[in-house]
Design a protein that fits this description.
The complex is a heterodimer of chains A (446) and B (282). With 446 residues, chain A is of the alpha/beta class. Helices cover 43% and strands 12% of the residues of chain A. Chain A has 16 helices and nine strands. Chain B has a two-stranded antiparallel sheet. In chain B, helix 6 runs parallel beside helix 11. Classes of the chains: A alpha/beta (446), B mainly alpha (282). At the A-B interface, helix 15 and helix 16 of A face helix 2 of B.
Amino acid sequence: MTNRINDHLRISRRGLLGLGLGVAAAPALTACGGVSTSGADGGEGAVNFLSTQFTQVEERQRFEKILGDRVTDPKVAFNPVDAPTFATTVKSQLDAGKVQLSLLGGLHGDLAPHASRLEDLDDVLGGLGDRGFAADLTELAKLGGGTTKYVPWMQATYVMAVNKKALQWLPSGADVQKLTYDQLLTWMTAARQANGNKPVFGLPAGPKGLYHRFFQGFLLPSFTGGQVTTFRSPDAVVAWEYMKQLWAQTVPASTNYDSMQEPLQRGEVLVAWDHVARLRDAPGDKPDDWVMVPAPSGPKGLGYMLVVAGVAIPKGAPEVDKAKEVIKALTTGEVQADVLRQNAFFPVTSAEIPADLPAAIKLEAGAVKTQQEADGAIVSLPPVGVGTRDNEVGQVFKNAFKEICLDRKPVQGVLDTQAGQLNAILDELKVACWRPDPAGTPCRVA
Amino acid sequence: MARKRARVPAAVLLIAPSLVVMTALFAWPLLVGIGQAFSGPDGPTTAYLRRMADDPYFWPAVRNTALLVVVLVPLQFAFALTMALLLRERPRFAGAHFFIWVIPLAVSDLAAGLVWLSVFADRGYLNSTLDHLGLDGYAWLSYENTTSMFLTVVVAELWRSTSLVLVIVVAGLQGVPKDYDEAAAVFGATYWQRLRHVVLPQLRPSLQVALILRTILALETFAVAQALTGRNLPLLVGETYQWYNVLQNPNVATAIALVVLAVSMLAAIGYLRLLRDRTVTR
């Protein structure tokens, strides 16, 4: 068969080589024509929307469908890219004065470094009074200045998922919706003893787990009121001593868990803390067996980490007016609800949570709301303005955990060494502190 | 007369291509690497070296890597020599045996790591077998059991890379004339005496090559350990990967890579001196 084909085609070896080279070169040559990071394929008059969110193919397709259904006029060319590409594209286009982008979407930390390159959006936000943005979010959206730099787009956070089986061991007088860290420890200790000495609490401490966010945004702010400046304070020592005790009541296999929904679903873990998107599948088809609750509170309050995304308009954008229309459309109740249903990012507005949501997301929505509105809530942000060094900053917190909880080294010594590491990174970056630390440049461990 | 220009010696011309390649692919990256490890945004600095040394994973990585070399290499040589000597006795199906023994050489190290992961995982083949026998399983790869983690890596590496030594030793043995061995046998030397005083000395060049290769490769153990234990059992090359890829700090990554390079060079020089043939006068 193959011989016959060869006889017919009679491609010489040289010809084949040339063809191969041509095929190999074609993509490389077309790439020279300009990677469409600017979303230039939107056609004339379309709003080019560059985003660090929904880069994953399925998420992107679902969001594009939402845009197609709900934002028909003007037309939007949605272009999700990773955070470093976003940063360089925005910087180079604006600094060169050749702006093709009309709309930028990103996490607070993605937009913050570009504050001076963004249009003031006070008028847009003023016109959206009926949306009911949380005051916290609109304050953040000023990026430390006096005017609004982005309009809140969507948010996510971390909560705790509780299998109702574990509620029987809850200490008397404790409300699972308003736990303190001490009650959590008592509860998990009792649960372990009642469960044949097998722990029931889990943390996503695997290689790709988000457990550093637990220390950055929950444990440390609740005990110390800060994230970076108080890293080695006496309060932080108390926090880590607590963490040591909690770890003793934690499923040891936690160091393999990247996301908690699987071990929760398998029943290896009954109570777990994780990102809302990574708890979504835990209840499976038995949502009645589960509750989702806010994180516990500590001596300084209820520290929680807010992952907030916003949309902004770069200075010199070609389609400012149309971009403003898109912003208005993105903050309508329908779009906010669609994004929640499809991509599990929660509304930033007071939009009614639709009744037909998947049960797990409905549970989460309740916990997210209670957590945000809790008395003494301390909002933390993921590190702002650190760009690609975010993983390195996170690693410092992971190292502290490893040395204190796994290797059982003395707390103060570990914190002193790791504070040195953190300062080495921050000294290179020279960034301002982010919530909950008091704003101050440069940010350092005291 | 016109031809009387300075002529480049033929030898220089002959080695020129390899010089160019070596410069472009080894010397240049090495220089860039040294630059990257020792200079920051504000000029020369040892900050990256200090961060490397202060990292809680670095010294355990050094210890584990050193331990791995010390345990693995002698074991591999013992196995490879035994296997090669068995083959030398020309048993039946010697060719088939040899073929089977070198199969691991053809398996990619990551694939080998994944195969062994399916053996040692909490619900892997080993634990299921133990379970069938009525024994309790063991968390071989748990961060709490450093020893068993280390042993799994040793076993996997032993399986994967002993055949490299075997191939080199078998090739070396084929170059050893049988006459000496037979002569020694005629004079009444025992098997051990012949092995110790006749075969092994003639194998010296092959052993030297194999030792250097295996030690350097053991220092670079990465994919197998990565698949089996992740960062729970840190090794030096795994740390460079972690710093470069996950923490996105190429400077510290190169600093660790330079440590691996320095140790590899020291090991190579050490072996060359240690195994120098002192009977040959130069």
